[in-house]
Amino acid sequence: MVRIALTFGLALAVAPAFANDSTAELGAGGLILSRNDVVSMDSEDLFISPDKVTVDYVFRNTSDKDVNTIVAFPLPEIEANPYEMPSIPEEGSDNFLGFEVTVGGVAVKPNLEQKVFAVGVDISAELKAQNVPFYPYGKVALAALAKLPQPVADDWLARGIIILDQYDDGTGWKSVRSPYWQLRSTFWWRAAFPAGKPVHVSHHYKPSVGATAGLSFFNDGKFEGEYDNYKRRYCMDEAFEAAVRKAQKDNTDSSPQLYESRIAYVLTTGGNWATGSIGKFKLTVDKIDARSLVSFCGTGVRKTGPTTFEMTAEDFVPERDIDILLLDRPESGSGN
After folding, report:
1. What's the topology of domain 2-328?
2. Contact present, 4 and 12 (Cβ < 8 Å)
3. Three-state DSSP class for 108?
4. pLDDT tens-digit map of 226-263
5. Helix, strand or coil for residue 127?
6. What is the residue extent of each domain of the chain?
7. In whole angstroms, what is the distance from residue 104 CA to residue 201 CA?
8. Could you tell me the CA-to-CA distances from 79 to 25, 87, 89, 277, 283 in Å, in that order?
């Protein structure tokens, strides 16, 4: 199948050819409290692996009066694009990360707010009026767009709500109306914080894991392509780079020896608690496979098991998000 994708041709040209065979990760994060000056975050215990993200919090109302406020969990924004597919754990579901939350050990059923934007304009009502689903991927959305009256389709094309995806599937050229909007989703609920008491909140979800069949930053024995960007984003050190060189050198055929997986966790947006810092912060990263390589930014990171790495801090102020790079070695090799 040959697609017309002139918009993205320049971006792909700087990477090795196998970078086309990839999916993009979506960065999710933790809970956000509506702004208040009395609820502090005593602790956050964060666990990240390719299979799951779990977060355990202890909040405390530092005042002598009960506080009722809104707690929200923003899902990562989905940008529809027929040429660049994101990794979506539960495709087609409104709860596409499988988010679940408990307060004091009791499950909470949060509300879900969804809005759709194109070129910064809220078009939610227009999609509803035409019975077009907000979720942009899959056959349901394409079928709904195919039924649009031509005047509506022409208007949406002109306004950047949809585009024409043109391709040859082997039986001739096709021209399909495809979504080009952004879906913004937020789970939220009302929470009570009794005066002077701790409140335990836990949530978990499936991360969006980006993947590339090969490496975007290393090719033909050289660090190139996305290398500068990856070094900043994932804090790749000399030991990690040496392991990459060795794995690629040991490769005896033309197939990629290492395969990228990427996880993004948005840590910097949750600063609406009283002190602006986290009393006790703990991060655990589990690469699952001991043969895989892992790299991410952190201070005082230590290896705590065959696949786990841990970082702890007190009065922690999150100044950057967490980006994790995993390199899988399915055939042989030892972990790093």
Report:
1. Immunoglobulin-like (2.60.40)
2. no
3. strand
4. 999 999 999 999 999 999 988 887 665 555 578 899 99
5. helix
6. 2-328
7. 6
8. 12, 12, 15, 31, 29
